[in-house]
Write a structure and sequence with these properties.
Elements (H helix, E strand, L loop, with lengths): L5 E2 L2 E6 L4 E5 L1 H10 L23 H12 L3 H14 L1
Length: 88
C-alpha cells in the first residue's frame, strides 16, 4: 500500500535525507475554519487592540447579539481546536 501520507486528519511528511518525520494539521485546521464560516480570518498580533472601546448594549442590541450568538456552536468550535491541540 505504500508509506502512509495521512492518519487521523494529520498529514505525514518525511525528510528521508535528514531522517525526520513531521506531522502537519494544516488541512484539518482549514477544514475546521471553513466548517465554522471563518474562511478568511484576519490575523492580529493581540486578541484585542488597545484602540477598541467597550460599551454597554441597549436591550434591542443585546437581544440581537443573543440571537446571533445562539447560532454559533461554541462547544464544537472549542472541541475541534482542542483536538488539533492535543493530537499534535
Amino acid at each position: 500500500m505504500g508509506a502512509a501520507e495521512k492518519i487521523l486528519g494529520m498529514e505525514i511528511k518525511r525528510d528521508r535525507d535528514q531522517r525526520k518525520l513531521f506531522l502537519c494539521q494544516e488541512g484539518y485546521i482549514l477544514k475546521v475554519l471553513k466548517r465554522f464560516g471563518m474562511n478568511a480570518p484576519k490575523p492580529v498580533s493581540t486578541p484585542l487592540t488597545s484602540s477598541i472601546h467597550l460599551f454597554e448594549l441597549n436591550s434591542t442590541q443585546l437581544e440581537a447579539k443573543k440571537e446571533y450568538m445562539a447560532r454559533i456552536p461554541y462547544a464544537s468550535v472549542v472541541g475541534s481546536l482542542m483536538y488539533a491541540m492535543v493530537c499534535t
